[in-house]
Write a structure and sequence with these properties.
The chain has one helix and 17 strands. Strands 11-12-15-14-13-16-17 form a seven-stranded antiparallel β-sheet, with no helix packed on it. Strands 2, 4, 5, 7, 9 and 10 form a six-stranded mixed β-sheet that branches. It starts with 25 loop residues before the first helix and ends with a strand.
């Protein structure tokens, strides 16, 4: 039986999950990941390990107006202690650095969080155990052709840290994991167009990047690899970054160089020297492709 939000009886329907309370920020999520190796090296610091994972981490759903889509996600607790998670939804967008930024406040305009129903607000997962968690997307009958997205966030208090000699100062550490959900309604489709191809200096290395614009009304993805030859005669394979391109938006994707000269793929030991002659084909999610044969300076 499903349980509604806020401890409702089993016989009652799930409530819209955007009413769920908000208790931690995305900063806490980043803090847990970034500080764990640093804090572990400090004398006198102890804290509970956060070791959680979701499978699958991403859902790409298709539905028609009036449909109810039911899905499950498995959360695994890899630590030796029981873990208790608060579950909520959030809106998200991709910031200027290509990272996900979350908003756990009221649903934004066009959000599909009001369509989501979640199993319950809090769950427990045993040590080195896993649990299946259910959620639903209720698409309104009057929903327009298009797409929307949301995040399903599982947050756990991973403990507090107190460096030696500072017992009065304790730093709370919060660990979070999230599943990203895309919903395509009706016959919405992406329409990806190549905007530009360039070489940028990233971490003191010349890295080619490719910019795509999505003129469609559903998110799109780019797959595949290209071949590049630089001014020094080095030949590498360029693997395109896997990331969604949202409707009416654009993304600058990295083309990561891979050296196959020894027969095994590995990062090149040399820096690519522009200009690069780049050629090959990239494929699009749902069909379509683009051919590239140009010199990039």
């Amino acid at each position: 039986m499903w349980l509604g939000l806020y401890g409702l009886k089993r016989s009652m329907k799930l409530k819209s999950c955007h009413n769920a309370r908000s208790d931690v920020s995305v900063a806490g999520w980043l803090l847990a990941a970034a500080l764990t190796p640093i804090l572990a090296a400090l004398p006198g610091v102890s804290f509970a390990a956060f070791d959680a994972a979701l499978s699958p981490p991403r859902f790409e759903l298709k539905a028609k107006p009036g449909d109810v889509t039911r899905e499950t996600v498995t959360i695994t607790n890899g630590s030796r202690a029981p873990a208790r998670f608060t579950v909520k939804t959030a809106d998200w967008h991709i910031d200027g650095n290509g990272r996900l930024a979350f908003d756990e406040g009221a649903p934004q305009a066009g959000s599909c969080r009001p369509w989501a129903r979640i199993e319950r607000l809090e769950i427990s997962v045993p040590p080195n155990g896993a649990r299946t968690y259910r959620f639903e997307i209720h698409v309104p009958k009057d929903a327009k052709t298009g797409s929307c997205h949301l995040a399903l966030i599982f947050a756990a208090d991973a403990g507090r840290v107190a460096p030696t000699g500072t017992a009065q100062v304790q730093i709370p550490i919060v660990g979070r994991v999230a599943a990203i959900v895309y919903v395509t309604i009706g016959d919405a489709k992406p329409d990806l167009r190549l905007a530009s191809l360039a070489v940028r200096k990233i971490d003191d290395k010349h890295i080619p990047v490719i910019d795509f614009y999505n003129q469609g009304n559903a998110h799109g993805r780019v797959f595949g690899a290209l071949e590049a030859k630089d001014a020094a005669g080095h030949i590498v394979t360029l693997m395109v970054q896997q990331s969604a391109i949202l409707p009416k938006g654009h993304r600058v994707l990295r083309l990561t160089p891979v050296d196959y000269s020894t027969g095994e793929p590995k990062p090149p030991t040399f820096d690519l020297q522009p200009p690069l002659h780049v050629r090959g084909k990239l494929q699009f999610l749902g069909g379509g492709e683009v051919s590239i044969d140009q010199v990039v300076r």
